[in-house]
Design a protein that fits this description.
single chain; alpha/beta; 6 helices; 35% helix; globular; binds 5-O-phosphono-beta-D-ribofuranosylamine
Length: 197
């Protein structure tokens, strides 16, 4: 049996993707991954409540407690080390790491974005695609590099924007797809079926 990959999930908000990861992957003897830590930059993130309910350790590291972004990044890395994390999963984490952090976790840090990158990067991918009037948008899972929502794509799934679509209905469709493809893709990474050159 392959040793389990120790994953840390970083989340700033509701944590519905974290929940999907916990439900689909965590605690399953067949799957070589365990979530060893949920880290947030926000005390009130509901993701922390979800982690606690699943018995997963949590930690908050707040940018305002650190003089520079590099110091914040170093503190996050120190906490990841304390928990022995070897895979970093960004799930709605609203901070951008600097080059040193990204290099340290090269090929071991993944993100999910609610649009078909490289279209509609940034914090409002669903709304920006909807407002633009595209007929197809979707979800991207990618390795993280030093840019914002850039880095090698691992998986994408298209979502049609129907003629009578509302922003709310599109958001619901996108999130449902996220909750399927993120756990599937993370499983593939944990099983060594995905690597980055
Ligand atoms: C998701 O739409 C994800 O694609 C984006 O942030 C959102 C996080 O949602 N990066 P949740 O906190 O997992 O519910």
């Amino acid at each position: 049996m392959q040793p389990k990959v120790k994953a840390a999930v970083l989340a700033s908000g509701s944590g519905s993707n974290l929940q999907a990861i916990l439900d689909e992957l965590h605690g399953d003897p067949e799957i070589p991954l365990e979530v060893v830590l949920v880290l947030s930059d926000v005390n009130s993130a509901y993701a922390l409540t979800r982690a606690a309910a699943a018995g997963v350790p949590t930690q908050v590291v707040r940018p305002r407690d650190h003089a520079t972004r590099e110091e914040f990044d170093r503190e996050v890395a120190a906490v990841l080390d304390q928990h022995g994390a070897d895979l970093v999963i960004l799930a709605g984490f609203m901070r951008v790491f600097r080059a040193e952090f990204v290099r340290r976790y090269a090929g071991r840090i993944v993100n999910i974005h609610p649009a078909l990158l490289p279209s509609f990067p940034g914090a409002h991918g669903i709304r920006d695609a909807f407002d633009y009037g595209v007929k197809v948008t979707g979800v991207t899972v990618h390795f993280v590099d030093e840019g914002v929502d850039t880095g090698p794509v691992i998986a994408q799934c298209a979502v049609a924007v129907d003629p009578d679509e509302s922003l709310a209905s599109l958001e619901a469709k996108i999130h449902a797809v996220e909750h399927e493809i993120y756990p599937e893709t993370i499983r593939a990474v944990a099983e060594g079926r995905v690597t980055v050159a």
